[in-house]
Specification:
With 304 residues, this protein is an all-beta fold. It has no helices and 24 strands.
């Protein structure tokens, strides 16, 4: 089967944070700049969305529920209730905490649950105009039943979380570094240590920046390349590019595996006017078929 890229959702301004809910067979994602949370059901083709009161960096279902989610809004972690219907009202169930209170111009940019259901999410510096942001103002945090812990500081744009339990590794992107980070990862505590860089975009002549990221069952990384119009498959052990998937949008923001067999790669993109207008289908959400690999199930957030 040859690889095909298909548009599934109309363009967003800053699509991000795709999460496949295996139980509901639905894709959740956000449009950060339009302050929207989104749901797409491939079986029906139905796309619904609703608005929050601030810029939202991610949406992850709360484990054991059908209508509750943890979201990052501006600098706050919230549990919300949403029935998934179009333009329906969202209820704030609980506020879990606020980060970067000493740097009030940052915002949450990306977040995921690790294999144990702990939330990892990071922040980025103020951006105005688009593409011009304050460097090293953000941080990476972990949230679990014990509270919020700062994992890394002096982060410019927090992105691209992925875990490999066999290798006891966590992969992470601070996008302007143009490198992929690897940390030793303790699944029992959630702690990370021993930073190494396992891939350098500039040394490999890759145009663009590493953005969102996921991992397949073979241990290879799939990396969205912002300003690069592609997704890269990277072997983190060899530090080499195995495959390049062209995407018909310049600003590719994130990826996740989903579908009934976890063999569909969902790709979010943006259409921000940075130096030049990004015309449709830029900003659309795409699905990539025929890759011949599978991903791991996305993990929902476990509060306890």
């Amino acid at each position: 089967m040859s690889v095909s890229v298909q548009k599934i959702v109309e363009p967003a301004v800053l699509g991000e944070g795709p999460h496949w809910d295996d139980k509901q067979q639905a894709l959740y994602f956000v449009d950060i700049n339009l302050k929207s949370i989104n749901k797409y059901v491939p079986a029906t083709g139905v796309h619904t969305k609703t608005l929050l009161d601030g810029r939202v960096g991610f949406i992850v279902p709360v484990d054991g529920t059908n209508d509750q989610f943890v979201v990052g809004v501006e600098r706050k972690f919230l549990i919300i209730q949403w029935d998934g219907e179009n333009n329906s009202k969202v209820k704030i169930v609980k506020e879990l905490g606020e980060v970067d209170q000493d740097v009030p111009t940052t915002r949450i940019n990306d977040g995921k649950a690790d294999p144990k259901g702990r939330l990892y999410a990071g922040t980025m510096g103020h951006e105005e105009p688009p593409g011009n942001f304050l460097m090293e103002k953000g941080s990476l945090y972990r949230l679990d039943r014990r509270g919020i812990v700062k994992m890394c500081s002096s982060i410019s744009i927090s992105n691209g979380l992925a875990w490999d339990l066999r290798e006891k590794a966590m992969y992470y992107n601070d996008s302007p570094e143009c490198k992929i980070r690897r940390y030793d990862y303790d699944v029992d505590t959630g702690d990370i240590c021993n930073l190494k860089y396992i891939f350098d975009f500039k040394k490999n002549d890759i145009e663009g920046f590493p953005d969102g990221m996921t991992i397949d069952t073979d241990g290879n990384l799939w990396v969205a390349v912002f300003d690069g119009s592609c997704v890269l498959k990277i072997d983190p052990k060899a530090g080499s590019v195995l495959q390049k998937i062209p995407i018909p949008a310049k600003q590719v923001t994130s990826v996740t595996f989903g579908g009934p067999n976890l063999d569909v790669l969902f790709v979010t993109t943006a259409s921000m006017n940075i130096k030049e207008e990004q015309k449709p289908p830029c900003g659309a959400t795409f699905m990539v078929l025929g890759l011949g690999v599978k991903g791991h199930p996305n993990v929902n957030f476990k509060l306890s």
